[in-house]
Amino acid sequence: MLLAAVCALFAQARAADISIIIDDVGYDHPLGLMAAELPGSVTLAFLPDTPFAVPLARLAYRNGKQIMLHLPMQSLEPHPLGPGGLTLDMTRDEIRRTLLADLASLPHVAGINNHMGSLLTQNAGDMAWLMHDIGRIGGLFFVDSLTTPRSAALEEARRAGIPSAARDIFLDDVHDDPAYVDRQLDKALAIARVRGSAIVIGHPYATTLAVLRRRIPQLAAEGVKLVTVSALIHDRKGHLMHARAGIVSESLREPDTRP
C-alpha cells in the first residue's frame, strides 16, 4: 500500500504539459483534413495564401484546434519561400506590409511561428522589426521554430514583450519511419516530465499523423496533458522553473525543405 501511494505521488509530480504544432498546413487537402481531425488540443500552423488554408483553418478551429500563421522566412539554402515570405533584402515597411497581408489571409490566427528562416532569424535587426510589428498588433504569441541554433527570434520576441517560446523537438525529420516519430515523441515527453512542459513540431505527413492519432489518446495515462500553445506559454510565464535551464533541448536544424 505504501509503495503504491509513493508511486502515485511520483506519477502526479511528473504530470506535465505538451503542445503539438503541425506546420506547413495548406497545400495538401487530404492530409490537412487528417491534421484538422486529430484528437485533442493540437495546434495547426498554416502557410499563407495556400490553396486550402482558409477552409482547413475554419474546420480546424471548429474542431477546437488553435490556429497559427506559419510565416515563411528566408533560409540559408536557396529554397523557394512561396507566398508571403520575408527576406533579408526587405525594408522595414515591406516586412510590416507582408506580415499584415499574411495575417489577413487566414482566419482565427492566435500566434505565429517561422517556416524555414535559418538565415533571416539570425538577423537580430530584422527580428526586432518583425517583433515590434507583432507586438503592436497585440494578442498574438510567437514560437521560434529554431531552424538554426543562432536564431535571434525568441530573444527579440521577449524584448518586444510578446508571449513567446521555442520548440523543443522536431517529430519527423525522418518522416517515413513511424518508429522514429515515436522515439521523437518519447523524447518530448521526457523533456516535459523533467521541465514541466515541451513544444514539439511535426508536419502533415501520413506517418506523423498516424502516430499522433495513436499516441495522443494515451498521453493522459502517461501523465502528460496536451494543451494549446498559448496555454503552455501562459503557464511558463508563471513558472520560472520551466525556463530552459536544467535540460538542453534538441537544437537540430530543420532541413528547410518543406513546401
Automatic annotation (TrEMBL):
GO biological process: carbohydrate metabolic process
InterPro entries: Divergent_DAC, Glyco_hydro/deAcase_b/a-brl
Annotated protein name in UniProt: Divergent polysaccharide deacetylase family protein
Species this chain originates from: Acidihalobacter yilgarnensis
